[in-house]
Amino acid sequence: MGEVSIDGETLRPEDVIAIANGQCTASLSESSRKMMSASRLAIERVLGSGEVVYGINTGFGALSSVRIGEGQLEELQVNLIRSHACGVGDRMEPEHVLMMMIIRANSLAKGVSGARPELVELMLSMVNARIAPVVPRIGSLGASGDLAPLSHMSLPLIGEGVCSVGDGDSWTTVPSNDALSEAGLSPILLQAKEGLSLINGTSQMCAYMVLALTNLENLLLASDCAVACSLEGIRGSHAPFDPRIHSSRPQFGQSISAARISGMLADSEIMASHADCDRVQDAYSFRCSPQVHGPVIELAREVRRILEIEINSATDNPLVFVEGEDSEIISGGNFHGQNLAMASDSIALACHELAAVSERRINQLLDPSWSGQKPFLANEEGLESGLMIIQYVAASLVSEMHLIANPATTSNVPVSMGKEDHASMGATGAFRSTTSTLYLSQVIANEMICACEALDRIEEAPGNGVETIREWVRKYVLPLNCDRSLTVECEALSSAMMNGEIGQLFG
């Protein structure tokens, strides 16, 4: 098992997922340990000087004008965690909580938050032992940091709350002290600023965005695969994927999509069999698929850029800057998640468009006027309904995604007596973007089921890449020899797509 060094600088979305899934462990880098110790000394100097600094010896938010006595600073941090741990709603999945912990630890490891190395080491030890705090999902506005979720995440660090302990694929919920003790760990006594450093950041948003981006990147390839399979299933034209068309409009995402689709169509006997047919042009859902998929490819690359910066950023307030013997503590607003909020809204919109065009291709596959096959690909039309309701389900999913695609970013609610008067709602948007990717995977799975069923009824061989995909789909979905429920098979196929199996097929 490999190990990822947590240094506040080099963490990648792939690392977050691998650590959370138990595929590797995480440890605090020596360079981060030194920087964290230096910033902690700066905090100690402030405490010794009697200077009043927000978050260190004051109240929080609208209570920042209240000075806290020296003997109450540790109690202040504990009270902060306890009072802010008031989230509601469904519990986050344990793996998602571990992702949040990894990202928070990496932010503190940057060495400008004033937290001790011991705090990060405890967090990483919990992650490595698969101890995930139980965290209600709802409670963050995406502006003052993910306060409520991160407070629930922090409770076990001080020996409070409950945790889920992972053993393989199963999770058992136990009191936090029991979980820590079983792993040979002990709670920590928070010192000045450390409670604020734990909860004042964008880590829940980032965790969901890591998941959404990873899913989307996998589903972009799956979308191109679905186009290729469906195109062969309706005996459609290969001409719209000619590289000369796309070089004349050099949008790089469009060219990538067209090249992938064209590559999967290579050596198609189906194309040769209808070279002289009278169909002049296919519908936009086929002909313009690179022009629809391409912008999403470009969006995904931009979201990755934003996210890789964010998970390697210090997002609490105030921040501690040390230069030699000098230090300065500065208040700012890095906890505001506007960049993530807008990126998450973009992902939800992109997923809707990919699903909407996929559902249109499903319609074409099931319509005899386009497919040249029996209605709904039923074996005995009338007696059997075939894949009729596959399209209904896809249309229902698209409708759900239409609602999700309405931006969360525009729902500003001022809080804390008006001091925090603009919120990003990024936590809501980021979670919804993960939901969008799930729904997208199910629409694409439905399209692939229809496409492979159509291909099974065509004598000529499809393109080499299409044949590879068909063989892979048949691992999860058997041919439709008679009417049957397809829910379990569709869900298995959608999960396999999100897990990146198609990418493995093509290297």
Give a topology summary.
Blueprint lengths: L1 E5 L6 H8 L3 E5 L1 H20 L23 H12 L3 E4 L2 H15 L8 H12 L2 E3 L2 E3 L8 H8 L7 E6 L2 E6 H7 L11 H6 L3 H31 L9 H5 L4 H13 L4 H5 L10 H4 L1 H22 L8 E5 L2 E5 L7 H29 L1 H4 L16 H17 L21 H31 L7 H10 L13 H12 L2 H5 L2
Parallel strand pairs: 1-2
Antiparallel strand pairs: 3-5, 4-6, 6-7, 8-9
Helix pairs in contact: 1-4, 1-9, 3-6, 4-5, 4-9, 9-11, 9-14, 9-15, 9-18, 9-19, 11-14, 14-15, 15-17, 15-18, 17-18, 18-20
The helix/strand series, from N terminus to C terminus, equals EHEHHEHHEEHEEHHHHHHHHEEHHHHHHH
Content of β-strand: 5-15%
The quaternary state of the protein chains shown equals single chain
Gross geometry:
elongated
Question: How would you describe this protein?
Answer:
There is one protein chain. This protein has helices at 13-20, 30-49, 73-84, 94-108, 117-128, 147-154, 176-182, 194-199, 203-233, 243-247, 252-264, 269-273, 284-287, 289-310, 338-366, 368-371, 388-404, 426-456, 464-473, 487-498, 501-505; strands at 2-6, 24-28, 88-91, 131-133, 136-138, 162-167, 170-175, 319-323, 326-330. It has a three-stranded antiparallel sheet with strand order 4-6-7. A two-stranded parallel sheet has the order 1-2. By secondary structure, the protein is mainly alpha-helical. The chain folds into two domains: 2-201, Fumarase/aspartase (N-terminal domain) (Fumarase C, Chain B, domain 1, Orthogonal Bundle); 209-505, Fumarase C, Chain A, domain 2.
